[in-house]
């Protein structure tokens, strides 16, 4: 396994959650910040912004069950409900009462479920703010890749076979298709992602996690309603070149969300902004935090 990936793994620990080992990292000082990664890799996708974030915040993150360095049960019913239950378990374990959240890809859907749970008082913590980045917030605007459709919409036996037949070359082609033209992933990053996907034979169950992409259809009405009715400050930082959830998703966000805060990165930034333009992501994130701090101070004076 690549030495940088090993170093990332060595940053963290594991904890037993309902009989499964879940990998997590806690680092830094300052206000709490929970960061949630995407599919199909893990928290390593945050490596380019990590050192800057931990200078400002106490950062908490974890690999979802079935992904990265967490356990990967191969006969398991993965769900957004379970992911949120694990979030709540870890929040309680970390002793957190409130936190800001930064999310990407699959992570944005987990946050949508957390927002819905928040309105129903079903979380054990207060969400102070939310930032979404490039993910399928609205399925009527989401454009999944063919490999996602094949892995997640095929009958399970076919999905299992396709996961088994997935090669590094096919993965590379899929990843490169959603990066910007001038920010293409290096061979090193492709190899690192391949190592992470294959850790504990994770590639063999990629189709099980991938099925969550279309499970989102079952939650859309409730999730969108939660986003429209929450009082929690929200922002969408978007890489507009992303064919999956780029400028078209940002435009849909503006149509559906009251008083929408959308921050567009350079027009050639794709699906992985925190890798393609880490300084832009950090700048926009800090800008958003300053905005909500200013608003909260203004409200306090009213």
TrEMBL record:
Is the keyword Zinc assigned to this protein?
no
Q: Which UniProt keywords apply?
A: Hydrolase
- Please indicate if the UniProt record lists Hydrolase as a keyword: yes
In this chain the AB hydrolase-1 domain maps to 31-278
Q: Which GO terms describe its molecular function?
A: hydrolase activity
Cleaved signal peptide residues: none
Q: InterPro entries in the record, alphabetically?
A: AB_hydrolase_1, AB_hydrolase_fold, AB_hydrolase_sf
Taxonomically, the superkingdom here is Bacteria
Name of the protein described by the UniProt record: Alpha/beta fold hydrolase
Q: Which organism is it from?
A: Aquimarina rubra
């Amino acid at each position: 396994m690549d030495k940088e990936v090993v170093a990332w793994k060595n940053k963290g620990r594991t904890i037993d959650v309902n009989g499964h080992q879940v990998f997590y990292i806690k680092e830094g000082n300052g206000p709490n910040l929970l960061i949630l990664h995407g599919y199909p890799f893990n928290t390593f996708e945050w490596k380019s912004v990590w050192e800057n974030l931990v200078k400002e915040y106490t950062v908490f993150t974890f690999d979802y069950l079935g992904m990265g360095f967490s356990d990967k049960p191969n006969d398991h019913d993965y769900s957004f409900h379970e992911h949120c239950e694990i979030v709540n378990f870890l929040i309680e374990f970390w002793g957190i009462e409130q936190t800001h959240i930064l999310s990407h890809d699959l992570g944005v859907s987990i946050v949508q479920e957390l927002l819905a749970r928040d309105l129903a008082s079903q979380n054990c913590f207060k969400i102070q703010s939310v930032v979404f980045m490039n993910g399928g917030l609205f399925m009527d605007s989401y454009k999944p890749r063919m490999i996602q459709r094949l892995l997640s919409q095929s009958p399970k036996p076919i999905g299992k076979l396709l996961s088994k037949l997935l090669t590094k070359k096919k993965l590379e082609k899929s990843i490169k298709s959603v990066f910007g033209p001038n920010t293409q992933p290096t061979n090193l990053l492709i190899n690192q992602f391949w190592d992470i996907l294959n850790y504990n034979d994770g590639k063999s169950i990629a189709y099980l996690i991938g099925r969550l992409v279309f499970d989102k259809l079952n939650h859309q009405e409730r999730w969108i309603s939660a986003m429209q009715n929450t009082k929690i400050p929200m922002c969408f930082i978007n890489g507009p070149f992303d064919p999956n959830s780029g400028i078209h998703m940002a435009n849909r966000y503006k149509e559906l969300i009251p008083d929408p805060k959308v921050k567009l990165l350079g027009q050639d930034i794709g699906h992985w902004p925190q890798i393609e333009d880490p300084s832009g992501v950090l700048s926009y994130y800090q800008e958003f935090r300053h905005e909500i701090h200013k608003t909260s101070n203004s409200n306090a004076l009213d």
